[in-house]
Amino acid sequence: MAGRLSDEVVLVTGAARGIGRAIAAKAAEEGAAVALVDVLGDELAATAAELQQTGATIASAVGDITDEDSVRRSVAELTADLGKPITVLVNNAGKNAYADATQMTVAEWDSVFDVDLKGAWLMARAVLPEMIAARRGAIVNIASIHSHLTTAGMFPYAAAKSGLVGMTRSLALDVAPHQVRVNAVSPGFIATDLLEEFFDTIPGARDTALAVHPLGRIGTPENVAEVVCFLASPAAAFVTGANWSVDGGLGIRYA
């Protein structure tokens, strides 16, 4: 399959469902060999099988991005299965958080930052040496509108996602001399299981969200996937250190 990513090997974390699954499907459609990582083994296997039916080159590994040994094993396994090093990393895996800052335990704090921030670093650390040696590669970190705007009741999600955007900028500067690009994408309200969890947790959130969106609708995982695959592709060869909003205009609204 010819496409924007026909010469790429794309690794997507949190690929079993939602935005991650949509990114993996779009990358495969654009001609990439696609590696899938998730902790949800059964759902990951189903997603991999479905994508393989399209004729795409797919490999999958059950892995925990918060554990450095698991990250190392997963990357090694996927690289061996595909016979090529990873050229594009999409750090999509994440989790919501609904904590009280005065009651949250250290373990709960760590669990949020482990998934939403540390895991992205561990994955980047695992794939960057090959990218640097080859003098080519791209990383796209899936941040959130919460990296610059947030709402009550979601502590400390905004802090973790803000950290991910900061890490994006730092990595972009550090690896730019090696012709490796690092960008972030900040989705707003996207129709996923995590959004349904948010709507179920925050009273009235669904009606409020629909009312304030300039485009008058909730986004889809495919909307995010299109932007991610553009940033991963040679079409975005002069874009690095950026944070692209995919939020239906919500982030520019004054009130």
From TrEMBL:
Keywords: Oxidoreductase. It holds the Pfam family adh_short_C2. InterPro entries: NAD(P)-bd_dom_sf, Sc_DH/Rdtase_CS, SDR_fam. PROSITE patterns: ADH_SHORT (PS00061). NCBIfam families: PRK07231.1 (NF005559). Belongs to the short-chain dehydrogenases/reductases (SDR) family. This is SDR family oxidoreductase. It comes from Kribbella sancticallisti.
